[in-house]
Amino acid sequence: MIIVFGNVLLMQLGLPLPTVPTLIISGTLAADGQVSLAALLAVTLLASLIGDTVWYLIGQRHGVRVMRLLCRLSLSPDSCVRQTETRFERWGLSTLLIAKFVPGLSLIVAPMAGALRLPLLAFLCFDAVGILLWGGIAIGAGWLFHPDIEMISRHLLEMGNGALALLGIALILYVSYKWWQRWRFQKILNITRISVNELVDLMAAGKTPVIVDIRSSSVRNLDTRHIPGARMIALNEWQTLIPHVQQDSDIVVYCNCPNEASAAQMVKLLMGRGYTRARPLLGGLDAWEKAGQAIHTLDA
User: Fold this and answer.
1) With pLDDT > 70 as the criterion, what percentage of the chain qualifies?
2) What confidence tier does 54 reach under pLDDT thresholds 50, 70, 90?
3) Domains along the chain?
4) Residues near 161 by Cβ (< 8 Å), separated by ≥ 6?
5) Count of other CB atoms within 10 angstroms of residue 117
6) Burial state string for 261-291 with b = 16 or more CB within 10 A and e = fewer than 16
7) Helix 19-31 and helix 120-144: axis angle, to 10°?
8) What is the mean pLDDT of residues 177-189?
9) Residues with Cβ < 8 Å from 56, sequence gap 6 or more?
10) Which neighbouring-strand residues pair with 278?
11) How far is 54 from 199, CA to CA, in rounded Å?
């Protein structure tokens, strides 16, 4: 029980620990009568709620800043954060029902709910249902298939070094896949940026570019700052810009995320449609404000 509690809690707090295998194995122990099935579900629920509540309160206190922190915890968390924002905009608290089943979403969804100031009691209720669905399926799989799991375990023990070799190959394949993902992500990021000073000089020369704020509406509601004259277009709406902008126009895209990841992705898409003068803003909205440039707010 202590191992299950600690494993689930640490995973919910952000450590990259494999929790589902632990729950499946605990389910096999429940099938053999060594532990209580109800107790396993209760421990899983308690540990998950503790971790999620911690992140909820952090998100409630620090808002979008904690989202930028989470952006630095994984390979392409900016896309994960953006997908979480989109899901919340579409489904609201129902997002919590499937959060535990989606890699990366589980860590992001709790602080996002806090940042959006969603009611704590409603958050806990929906989160509890999602946890019970996730934990129940994993533990139930171990309980239901325990003869097969025990047989596989015996075969692995009999294989000895062969089993270790298979695990090593699986690990190498996993690391290779992650490296390939990182390489693809870096290719998107390797786009020439425009600095704040260069943008200011461009505007001073009378060549005011099309400025695009691609943050989601949820983030804009939390952080109402924007560059004067910017068009509000989310990344998944990037094609709506095309009918209104000439291909030889200067386009500057900004977000407020590490490495300008979302902005770089939109620029990549625009360049694929012939907009070769599109560039991400280096440092995003924070760099613009830090340089002392004018900032407007949506409620101004």
Assistant:
1) 79
2) very high
3) 2-159 (no CATH), 189-297 (3.40.250.10)
4) none
5) 12
6) bbbbbbbbbbeeeebebbbbbbbbbebbbee
7) 60
8) 67
9) 110, 111, 113, 114, 120, 123
10) 251
11) 40
